[in-house]
Structures are given as structure tokens and as C-alpha cells.
Write the C-alpha cells for this entry.
Amino acid sequence: MISNLSDEYLTIKSLVRLKTKVEGSIFIATAIPVNSEEDVKDWILKISKEFFDATHNCFVWRIKKAQGESLKFSDAGEPRGTAGKPISSAIQSEDLYNVVVVVSRYFGGVKLGTGRLSRAYRQAAQGALQKAEKVRDWVTSEITLSYPLSMSGKVSQIFSQYDIRVKDRGFEKDATARVMVRSSLVEKVKNVLLEATNGQVKFNGKDKV
């Protein structure tokens, strides 16, 4: 692995869930690693369907980008500031990115008040995140390229050397590939591929971050 701390981030390895109870109310915190805002939407919909009978399904997601980050949250009907912000605080205190946390609450008949409610949401989220296995990852950009079939071996070696993740490949008249490259290495990888293929590699379209 090539080290460059500027674009690295900490995330969780896999889905984790933790159930807590406060004054009769049940809080089910689900934390999931995600790679894009599309992933976020899919997971929020999935968890909301799973806990369709919950009183509230509050969520927060935080994604690392090439420049800055994206952070959004929803109180989902709870008093303003009592769910989204506390969950967000839990994510930030663990210094995590590319994660969505959904906390599903089943009201137990006893009102907690804004202070206790905020603490309950934060503790539920933080408990799930602390339970999760942490892993380091990095921001990536999607590149689509084509090259002569005879160059497939050289290109594959470069993919391996730079930890490039192949999303799909094709082998017809020319070889094609859609890959995820560490954002800070995009230009370097392109130059290496051009040199290795004597300029025969072609990059198609605009890089997607």
C-alpha cells in the first residue's frame, strides 16, 4: 500500500448494530460503511423498511471527498437538534468517514425531554461505532480506459502496484477497464500507464470523484 495520509480516512469494516433501552424507549443503532451518496440513500431506505414500525428512523451520513467532506442528518420528526446532531457528534468523535448511522427509536411511553433524548441518541450511535472494527481507506476517483489486448499484462501489473480497484473489464477488439484510483495518484497513474503502453492507453470521459 502506498502511504499518503492527506487523503486517507478511518471508516468501519462492516455493518454493526446495537440495541439499547432508555425509560422504555428502544434505540436500535445501525452503522454501515458506504462509498457514495447513492449507497447512503439505498441503505437509509433499506433500514427504514426494516424498521417500518419504528416511531422514528433518524440518520446521519458523513463522506470524505477529494476536497472536504459531505455531512447530512435528519431528526426524522424528533424535536429539532435532539437526534441528528447527537448522532453526528458520535461519528465525529470517532473520527469516521464514509459511514451512515441510522438510529431507529420505538417510543416507550415516557417522554425523555430534549437533554436525555439527545444523550440517548448519541450513546446509541457511539455504542454501535465503538463496537465496529475500524479500517483505513482513501478517497478514490473513477477512471475508464482502453488499451491494446497485448498490453493487458503490463496494465494489470500497474493496477496491482498502485492498489487500483477494478470495477469491470472487457476484452474485445481492445481491452477496457473501469477502475477506482486513489485520488491523489490519478495523474501519476495515468502517466505510468501512458509510459508502459507507449502512449497506446486511452482515457475515456471525465474522471469521477
